[in-house]
Design goal:
Number of helices of chain A: 5
Strand content of chain B: under 5%
Structural class of chain B: mainly alpha
Shape of chain B: flat
Mean pLDDT of chain A: 83
Number of strands of chain A: 5
Mean pLDDT of chain B: 72
Strand content of chain A: 15-25%
Largest sheet of chain B: none
Number of helices of chain B: 10
Oligomer: heterodimer
Chain lengths: ~200, ~350
């Protein structure tokens, strides 16, 4: 479950439009060979631009491209694109995009509307987000809750098993204690008998 | 009573009796039109044919009744056989060669049969009632006919019930197949990342999803994992070959996104419910075991009391053993008595 790249772009809603302008870019190409990395980065940029151009405003899209799913969310001309692999749950992907988008708007306000050329400055938040959200649970609270609930359920099952064992042990203890009390009763009777019987000799 | 004293004297030949009785009855029947005697004799002789004119109508009734009843029973038997065939068909349907047409035909045929049988049973019951109302039958015949009708009705009811069960099973099967088909036709908006779905050109997906899903489903069980790993190894080289393989499919996702969120919420809620029930079960079990612990405690107290009592007894015994002066005197006396006797006998 991996995020390979996160991109923030400015999309013009004009249909004849120029390609969207990249506002922020964070990629994790460490699993490619060293010489392919540059190519992969260019490829990511290209595909990201294409997808963002084709995403109508206020809509979410997911595109399957080879082994990646490219998710894009366009809100008011600000478009966030994420490259995830197939295992990454779609819902979490979109919550990641939501978070990035909100953060970007908080950081930069509306200043992005004036940018015309690709900005090359890295945005540290995006890089952090890329590493943090490798685990879909981080982004998607529902997923996290579900996971924790499942763990709790497992723990409860184990607890119930151990309680059942405890029950069995208590059963055996009950039996032993009742045997013990019967034996002690016999002991008492014997003692009384030896006492009562031969007072003469 | 002619007892044949010849070779086999193990049977009695009562043919004369029988013929005399029939003569007698024939005479009485033509006057009183009583069927009962004829019927009982018919039963006794096991097939003796008596043709009394007055009784023909009621006999005709009876045989008509019997004929119809046997036809209905036969029909029910046939229908249940067809139903068994239908059940087998419904059970074995796989996703692909679905004998839907046959199943539907068979269903229609069985339905027709059942309705026909139903109406036939209703008719039979009417006949039986009308027959019972005419006075000229014995109570045995009427009970017999009512029993027969009830039996047939019960059998028909059980057949209908089985039919309904088979139909429900078929709809469930259909549902399962739908689910499975959805699972394996790989549209991109599916969350459940199914590693068995091969990564093929998705441009054909919408047209050929049905033809795509059988091969992956059938073939992938053997070859899925090496394929998947190979795909992973290929990812590195593929971004370079993008132009040839570029597949893109825009799927409107808004609805499914919302739906998936709603679904996730539902799951969370149901999980919490389950957790609650597990907790209650746990509490019940622990309280039950608490009672066990109390019992153990009581047993131990009993044991303690017994052992203490026994210890007291033994102490008393010990005291009485160790400090009995009277015992010494007794031993002395016994010794002196022996000495006396010894002295007496010797001296």
């Amino acid at each position: 479950m991996k995020i390979t790249a996160l991109l923030v772009l400015k999309c013009d809603s004009r249909s004849d439009g120029s390609d969207p302008v990249i506002l922020a870019n964070a990629t994790d190409v460490s699993h490619f060979g060293y010489f392919q990395r540059v190519t992969v980065k260019q490829f990511i940029v290209f595909v990201g631009r294409t997808v963002a151009k084709r995403t109508p405003p206020d809509q979410r899209h997911s595109v399957q491209h080879e082994e990646y799913k490219v998710h894009s969310y366009n809100r008011n001309g600000l478009c966030v694109v994420g490259f995830m692999d197939d295992h990454y749950p779609v819902r979490s992907a979109f919550s990641v995009l939501n978070k990035v988008m909100d953060e970007y708007q908080k950081c930069f306000g509306d200043s992005w509307r004036t940018i015309q050329a690709d900005s090359t400055q890295p945005w540290p938040y995006l890089n952090d987000a890329l590493t943090k959200f490798q685990d879909p649970g981080e982004a998607d609270k529902l997923l996290k809750i579900q996971r924790e609930l499942d763990e709790t359920k497992i723990i409860l099952h184990k607890t119930i098993d151990s309680v059942l064992e405890r029950g069995e042990k208590l059963d055996s203890l009950v039996e032993k204690s009742s045997d013990l009390s019967a034996a002690s009763q016999m002991f008492y009777k014997q003692a009384k008998k030896t006492n009562q019987c031969c007072t003469i000799l | 009573m002619n007892i044949k004293s010849a070779q086999s004297s193990s049977y009695r030949d009562r043919t004369h009796e029988f013929s005399s009785i029939t003569e007698r009855l024939r005479k009485s029947l033509s006057s009183s039109n009583a069927v009962a005697g004829v019927n009982s004799i018919g039963g006794v002789s096991g097939g003796g044919l008596t043709k009394a004119e007055g009784s023909r109508s009621t006999i005709a009734f009876q045989s008509e009744f019997n004929k119809r009843a046997s036809k209905i029973g036969y029909g029910i038997h046939h229908t249940s056989q067809k139903l068994a065939k239908l059940a087998k068909l419904a059970k074995r349907t796989s996703v692909f060669d679905d004998p839907t047409k046959e199943i539907q035909e068979l269903t229609a045929v069985i339905k027709q049969d059942i309705t026909a049988l139903n109406s036939a049973v209703v008719d039979l019951q009417l006949i039986c009632n009308s027959q019972n109302e005419s006075d000229s039958v014995s109570s045995d015949t009427s009970t017999h006919s009512t029993t027969v009708v009830d039996n047939l009705k019960n059998r028909l009811m059980s057949t209908t019930k089985e039919f309904k069960d088979v139909l429900t099973m078929r709809t469930e099967n259909l549902k399962v197949h739908e689910n499975r088909r959805q699972l394996f036709s790989a549209t991109t908006s599916k969350e459940t990342a199914n590693p068995f779905v091969r990564q093929r050109p998705l441009a054909n997906k919408s047209t050929a999803s049905s033809s795509n899903s059988p091969p992956p489903w059938a073939n992938d069980s053997s070859s899925s994992s090496p394929l998947f790993q190979r795909k992973h190894a290929d990812t590195e080289s593929q971004p370079l070959i993008q132009q040839q393989n570029q597949q893109q499919q825009m799927v409107p996702l808004q609805d499914s996104y919302m739906q998936s969120r709603a679904e996730a919420l539902h799951n969370v809620e149901s999980t919490i419910h389950e957790l609650g029930s597990i907790f209650t079960q746990l509490a019940t079990m622990v309280s039950q075991q608490g009672e066990l612990a109390i019992r153990i405690d009581e047993n131990m107290e009993d044991t303690l009391a017994n052992v203490e009592g026994a210890q007291g007894q033994l102490m008393r015994y010990l005291n009485s053993i160790s400090s009995n002066r009277w015992l010494m005197i007794k031993i002395f006396f016994v010794l002196i008595a022996f000495l006396m006797i010894f002295l007496f006998f010797v001296a």
